[in-house]
Amino acid sequence: MTPAATALRREAAFLSEGVTCRAWVYEPAGDVARPAPCIVMAHGLGGTRDASLQPYAESLAAAGFYVLLFDYRYLGDSDGEPRQLISMQRQLEDWRAAITFARGMPGVDADRIGLWGCSLSGGHVLVAAARDAGIAAVSAQCPMLDGAASARMAVKQAGTAMAVRMAGAALLDVARACLGQRPHYVPLAAPPGELAAMATPDAYAGCMAIVPPTWRNEVAARLFLTLPLYRPIRHARDVKCPTLLIACAHDSVVSTKAAIKTAARMGSKARLITLPIGHFDIYLGEWLQRSSAEQIAFFQSVLQSARTVVKAR
To answer: How many whole angstroms separate alpha carbon 12 and alpha carbon 99?
Structure first.
């Protein structure tokens, strides 16, 4: 029987700073003792809950976990204006609200909360765990752990002229925001040579392969000013729980070296796996199966092998 056939899913909602975030709650399959551990999940840069994260959530539920998979404010099915706004601080607030909601869900063991992130949210989960000693486990795949390094990669690939265009678009968006006007949008993903948040050779095709037809390929351009300043790697030593990092050796979007450095800073708390693939390959086919199996085994070893003891929140 496939995970999709066994996972029970329901709609849920919670408030983050007074704005409604919408989520799916997956029930653990089989005869699982309650209270049971819960994995909180959200997507990466501009991603939504329906952008190829369902197989991960279904597999985790089939393995005996509750799963809370949510959309950030301003994106997907969640509320918030303006639409398509990506703010690091606000997304971290959404993570905090989602974790609080998960801890209060009936049947969930509040002391066995795991975090699952990918790409940008792979950095968010590290920061969230560093700030919350009650988090019991973290898994981050193709994680964006150093915005400065990612920005340098983008400039190296696109050139300084494109970097100037990106800065101009960001400043225009900020100016429009100050005037109370609609954001200045740019594509989230585009072919090389076009102005976009991701314009590496594999970005557009890779992104289109994992998103649903309703996905909006645009983002408020102020992102170009804030993303390079976001460096979750700085929080690595503050994470106290076991952490699984799955890096992609041929990642053109985020820095694989940053994942290696993060694992080194975390020492024995971190396990690093490097797969011989690009940034978007991990969501499909054999690499989806491989990464999902690694994450299930990791969460089972930390959250299910024995009742996890964590510090008081």
So the answer is: 13
Q: How many domains does the chain have?
A: 1
Please report whether residue 161 resides in a domain: no
Distance CA 203, CA 209 (A): 10
Is-above-0.90 flag for pTM?
Answer: yes
Q: Which residues pair with 15 in a beta bridge?
A: 20
Q: Is 99 among the domain residues?
A: yes
Burial state string for 83-111 with b = 16 or more CB within 10 A and e = fewer than 16: bbbbbbebbbbbbebbbbbbbebeebbbb
User: pLDDT tens-digit profile of 198-244?
Assistant: 999 999 999 999 999 999 999 999 999 999 999 999 999 999 999 99
- Give the up-direction half-sphere exposure of residue 155: CA atoms within 13 A in the CB hemisphere: 15
CB 114 within 8 A of CB 135: yes
The two tokens of residue 19 are 């704005």
- Provide the residue type at 20 as one letter: T
- Name every residue whose Cβ is closer than 8 Å to that of residue 144 and which is 6 or more positions away in sequence: 44, 45, 119, 120, 122, 123, 150, 230, 232, 253, 254
Tell me whether residue 163 is in a domain. Answer: no
Is residue 159 domain-resident? no
Q: Are 79 and 154 in contact (CB under 8 A)?
A: no
Instruction: Give φ, ψ of 141 to 5 degrees.
Output: -110, 145
Looking up residue 253, the CATH number of its domain turns out to be 3.40.50.1820
